[in-house]
Amino acid sequence: MIDSFSISSSLVIWIAVALVVLLLIGWIKWIVGRRRKFDLAKITMRDIDKMDGHEFEDYLYVLISALEYEQVYQTKKSRDYGADLFYEQQDGTKCVVQAKRYREKLGLSAVQEVYAAKAFYGAERALIITTADKLSDSCLKLAAATDVHIVDRLDLDVVIKAFKKGRYAEAWEVLDVPLEPVAFSSTNSLEKPPEVRGAIQAGEYFYKQ
Prior knowledge:
Blueprint: H1 2-38, H2 45-49, H3 53-66, E1 70-74, E2 85-88, E3 94-100, H4 108-120, E4 125-130, H5 137-146, E5 148-151, H6 153-164, H7 168-176, E6 199-202, E7 205-208
Parallel strand pairs: 3-4, 4-5
Antiparallel strand pairs: 1-2, 2-3, 6-7
Helix pairs in contact: 4-5, 6-7
């Protein structure tokens, strides 16, 4: 009876110790993971891919501020008028940024929104910073026409790596220097409905002359 009781007591103690150790290991992993998630110096593209849109905006705010840009602001989460961030370059140029944490191809609407934000906030440059690695043709053409600078996934990775190495000038070069514009022709986007003799017509609407 006594031996059986001693064995049972020892087993309970060992189980309790094992549980405490497991909880301690889990707590340490949680702390390390939390530091990795929020410490800018340790965040990778893999971490960014797990962010939601608002987290990506917060991350870019900290990154741009850490890169020693001036007057860095976030826009309000509601009614941002097409921009998520506002900052000034070292030469005083005012910039608006739209953050797009996308997996899919970046489309036309992103350019339209940030171009409108440029006018609303009185900025001189408009940027889209995105995790997307593919851009639609219409997106590229409108960006070229409106002088909207797009920092895609590869560019963002360059900025992050340059920041971690303390090479801020390399990061500035990606963010501040416009890309080579894409050739486009606005006339390719214009069309005239088929002519109807004696009338002006488009779709179901007409006017007899």
